[in-house]
C-alpha cells in the first residue's frame, strides 16, 4: 500500500476553465510546499482535498490517503486536518471546549479531559483548558488551533498560510512545532505559503503552481 497523501490526475475547473492540474505524492512525514501567485488556486486545491470546494468549481481526479480513495467521502470522514492563518477558535467556548469539539466521539468525560490536558501540556499550555480564547496571545491561539486539529486524529495535514499572522520569532517556533509533530506522527503535509522561510524550514520539495488561465 502507498502510505501518504496522493493527488492523482487532479484537475479543478472554475466554471468551464481549468484552474489547476496537479499530480502529487506526499509520503508519510514528508512536507510538500506549494507556492505560486495569488489567485492561482492554492486554497482551492486544499478545498478539493478536504471535500469543501465552493460552488462554481468542479474537481476531477482522485485523492488517496494511505492508498484509499477518499475523493467522494464527506469532509468529516476524510481524516484530513487543516490549519489556516485565522485560527478560528470558537470565541464563546473555553479552550478545553474548543479542543473537545473536534475529538472523535467515545471514551469517558474523564478520559477525554485527560487527553486534552496532556495535549495542551505537550505544546507548553498546561492548565489552559478553562481559559477564554480571547485572553490568549497570537502564538498561544496558534498552538491551541494546532492541538485541536491533532486531537481530531488526522492522517494528513494541510497548512494554508498557517503561520503568516505570527511575528518572526513565534512563526519559527510554531512552524517547527508543527513540522516536528507531523514527523513524529508520520503525517504527510501539504503546505501552501508565500513565504520562502516557511518553504526552507519545511525542508521538502517545493512546487510553484502556474496559472492555466489567461487573464
Ligand atoms: N468561493 C469562491 N467563489 C468563487 N471564486 C472563488 C472562490 N474562492 C476563490 N475564488 C477564485 O478562485 C481563484 C483561486 O482562488 P484561491 O483562493 O484558490 O487562490 P490562491 O492561490 O489560494 O490565492 P492567495 O495566494 O491569494 O490565497 C481566484 O481567482 C479566486 O478569486
UniProtKB/TrEMBL annotation:
Q: Does the keyword Disulfide bond apply?
A: no
Q: Where is the ABC transporter domain?
A: 2-215
Which SMART domains does the UniProt record give? AAA (SM00382)
Q: Which UniProt keywords apply?
A: ATP-binding, Nucleotide-binding, Transport
Q: From which domain of life does this come?
A: Bacteria
Q: Which GO terms describe its molecular function?
A: ATP binding
| Gene3D superfamilies reported in the protein's UniProt record | P-loop containing nucleotide triphosphate hydrolases
Matching Pfam families, A to Z? ABC_tran
List the InterPro entries: AAA+_ATPase, ABC_SmlMolc_Importer, ABC_transporter-like_ATP-bd, ABC_transporter-like_CS, P-loop_NTPase
The entry's protein name is ATP-binding cassette domain-containing protein
Species: Octadecabacter dasysiphoniae
